[in-house]
């Protein structure tokens, strides 16, 4: 996980997970709509997942 990805996940979480699949984008987008902090946390968790 690069510094640019972390910065992008803080500024705009759905853009940080674009290459992780449609489901991840939708989940992060909905969480970002519910509140900025849950969206950032979800984006960082998805980006930190070693399986993808």
Structure description:
The protein is mainly α and 52 residues long. The chain has one domain. It is 75% helix and 0% strand. It has four helices and no strands. It has helices at 3-11, 13-16, 22-34, 36-48. Helix 1 packs antiparallel against helix 4 (36-48) and helix 3 (22-34) packs antiparallel against helix 4 (36-48). It is globular and about 25 Å long. The termini are close together. The model has no long low-confidence stretch (mean pLDDT 93).
What's the rounded overall pLDDT mean? 93
Count the domains.
Answer: 1
Instruction: Give the biggest beta sheet.
Output: none
Oligomer: single chain
Tell me roughly what share of residues is in helical segments.
over 70%
Determine the N-to-C terminus distance.
11 Å
Name the beta content range.
under 5%
Low-confidence stretches: none
Q: How does the overall form come out from the CA principal axes?
A: globular
Instruction: Count every beta strand, where a strand is a DSSP E run of 2 or more residues.
Output: 0
Overall radius of gyration: 10 Å
Q: What structural class results from the helix and strand content? A: mainly alpha
Q: How many individual helices? A: 4
Order of helices and strands: HHHH
């Amino acid at each position: 996980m690069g510094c640019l990805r972390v910065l992008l996940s803080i500024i705009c979480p759905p853009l940080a997970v674009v290459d992780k699949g449609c489901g991840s984008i939708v989940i992060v987008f909905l969480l970002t709509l519910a509140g900025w902090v849950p969206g950032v946390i979800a984006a960082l968790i998805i980006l930190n997942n070693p399986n993808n």
